[in-house]
Each structure stands twice: as C-alpha cells, then as structure tokens.
Design a protein that fits this description.
The chain is an alpha/beta fold and 318 residues long. Helices cover 46% and strands 14% of the residues. It has a seven-stranded mixed sheet, with helices on both faces. The structure holds S-adenosylmethionine.
Length: 318
C-alpha cells in the first residue's frame, strides 16, 4: 500500500531537516549557498527570456523611489518575524533590491512549475494564476465586488485577480480591489506599474491588523504568502480575514503543497537553498492550515492541488 506523505522529509523535525538546518546555520556555507542560489536563479531566468537584470535597471528611477515616502505608513510596526533575511536579501522584503527583483523572481517561479512543457514565462505565469482562480471560481462566492489581496508584493497577484473579476462581472457590478503589503518598497513598484489605476488602493499595513471595517470584502486572498510566515502570524491573519469578510465570502490561499510529489522529491541542493532563503519553511510545511482555518471560525475549507507544486485552499465564512 502506498501512503501519501504529509510533508517533505527535508522540512520539520526529521533528521534530514535538522542536518539541512545545521548546514544553513554555518555562516561560511550559508554565504556560499546564497551567492550560488542567486547566480543560478538569475541565469536560469534569463535563459528562459525573463529580463531579470534589465528589469531592475528599468525600475530604478527617481520617479519610482520617491513613491516610498508617499506610500509608507509611519504607524506600521514591523513584526519580528518579518525583519529577518529573506530570499537572500539581508533586509528581507524591506529594500529596493527585493522590490526590483520581485517580478522577475515571480516569473521564474512559474516557469519551474511546468518544466517539461516549454512554456514561455508569460504562458507559465498566466497558467499559474488561472489555476488558482479556477478553484476560487468553483468554491468561492458567486458575487464578488470587493477583493483584498494580502501580501500583494509588486501587484502581480492583485492585477490577475482584479482583471479576472472585472471581466466576469457585469458592468453594473464593477470590482474594487485593494492590495496590502508590509513592504512599502514592494508597494512602490506595484503602484508604479499600475499605470491605468486599476487597483483602488495600495495599502502599507500588516495583514494581522489591517484597520479595514468589519465585513467589507467578499474575497481575501493570500497568494504565496503563508510560507513566509510563522504559524502564529498565519493564524492571526486568518482571524483578521474572517473579520473582514462578509458572510458567504471566502479566504483563498495558494502556496507550496507539502503533499506534492514534486516538492517532496526536490533535489537536496534545491531544498537546502529554498530553506536557506525562507526562514519559516519548517513551520509552514508542518502547519495544518485546514485545522487553523476551522479553529478561527471558517467553515471547513476545500483544498485542491491546483498545479503540480501548489495547493489552493478556499475557506468560506458562514
Ligand atoms: C512571495 S510575496 C507574495 C507574492 C504575491 N502575492 C504574488 O502572488 O505574486 C509575499 C509578500 O507578503 C508580504 N508579507 C509578509 N508578511 C506580511 C504581513 N504580515 N502583512 C502584510 N504583508 C506581508 C511580503 O512583504 C511579500 O511582499
């Protein structure tokens, strides 16, 4: 009998996981891995048509940089878990380099999902977003007017969901979408690229306490955010999403699927690099999202392996 493993052996408290963690905590080794990871990531992306370095050059303009002050909410308090190195940036998401590289990194990520299919990065990105939206269409609310994209980063996920519902809704029911992120650098890029002002607001804030009124959204999304959080933060954000949703509304989450055979069989070099740049991996891969969502008050969620590497959860508010 074959049993489905709930998580990869390289995450959590297994021996393999602990060995990997020890390697990562060795400063010389960590510095080496970081440098190597960046080199491989950029080279592979550019080989596949993602203009990684050129995108950064194009974005780095005074017009964009000056948005930082306008977008920064000085009242925002950064949680400790957020102020650690992430994705090989020593300042985590709180720097220009992370913001300029976020879009190319997102395009490269989608390309890794269907490596055998020779997709262009544009096709892979569209398919990644559509596979999530298909699950939301099936299990989310029929009527969607107000959407909050939590952890919107540079706005790729925000724009995809906004355009999806803008196209679906009748002209009499225009969709209003808000993007929220803790990094004002990411938001500056998002706002700069939203040239047609499609998104109602780009908000600097913590997803745990957004300040929006109760029952003000039909859909809240967390797209590729949960794996960047320790579980207590995930739980607090789920509770906040429940407060923000109208009855019948849905929280939709897409992220790495711990049960994915592809994720479980990642080569050691890749999972070590992944763990070395994503500090909350062990917590994420052992976090029972379904249970946490139910415990904060959602109806039992639906979970669908929406692509070979990711799962989508849709949790409704009763
Ligand atoms: C991997 S990115 C998300 C990418 C984006 N949603 C997409 O699908 O392209 C994760 C984002 O979550 C943001 N984030 C992490 N913790 C947060 C929190 N507590 N509140 C708001 N944003 C947060 C980070 O700043 C980062 O921009």
């Amino acid at each position: 009998m074959t049993t489905t493993k709930l998580k990869p052996d390289w995450a959590g408290d297994d021996l393999l996981s602990r060995l990997v963690n020890r390697a990562i905590q060795t400063p010389v080794l960590y510095a080496l891995m970081k440098r190597q990871a960046r080199r491989v990531l950029i080279q592979t992306a550019e080989k596949n048509g993602v203009a990684w370095r050129q995108t950064c050059v194009d974005l780095d303009t005074p017009a964009l940089r000056q948005r930082l002050d306008e977008l920064t909410n000085p009242a925002v308090v950064y949680p400790d878990y957020y102020q650690v190195p992430f994705h090989a940036y020593s300042e985590g998401n709180l720097c220009w380099q992370a913001a300029f590289e976020a879009a190319p990194a997102t395009y490269a990520m989608a390309l890794r999902v269907w490596p055998q299919e020779n997709l262009s990065w544009q096709e892979a990105q569209a398919r990644l977003r559509q596979s999530f939206l298909n699950v939301l269409d099936q299990y989310g609310p029929a009527q969607v007017h107000d959407i909050l994209d939590v952890g919107c980063s540079v706005g790729i996920s925000t724009m995809a969901i906004h355009r999806h519902y803008a196209q679906k809704n009748a002209p009499t029911n225009p969709v209003r979408t808000v993007g929220l992120d803790l990094s004002p650098y990411m938001l500056a890029v998002a706002q700069f690229q939203d040239t047609q002002h499609e998104i109602a607001q780009w908000v600097h804030g913590a997803a745990e306490s957004t300040g929006f009124p109760d029952a003000s959204f039909d859909v809240v999304t967390m797209q590729f955010v949960t794996h960047e959080l320790p579980r207590q933060a995930g739980r607090a954000i789920f509770a906040e999403a429940l407060r923000l949703l109208r009855p019948g509304g849905a929280l939709a989450i897409v992220d790495n699927n711990p049960q994915s055979p592809v994720i479980q069989a990642l080569p050691p070099v890749l999972f070590t690099l992944m763990k070395s740049t994503e500090p909350w991996s062990d917590d994420y891969y052992t976090f029972d999202l379904e249970m946490a969502l139910t415990e904060v008050g959602f109806e039992p969620p639906v979970t669908v392996p929406s692509d070979p590497r990711h799962r989508t959860l849709v949790a409704r508010k009763g």
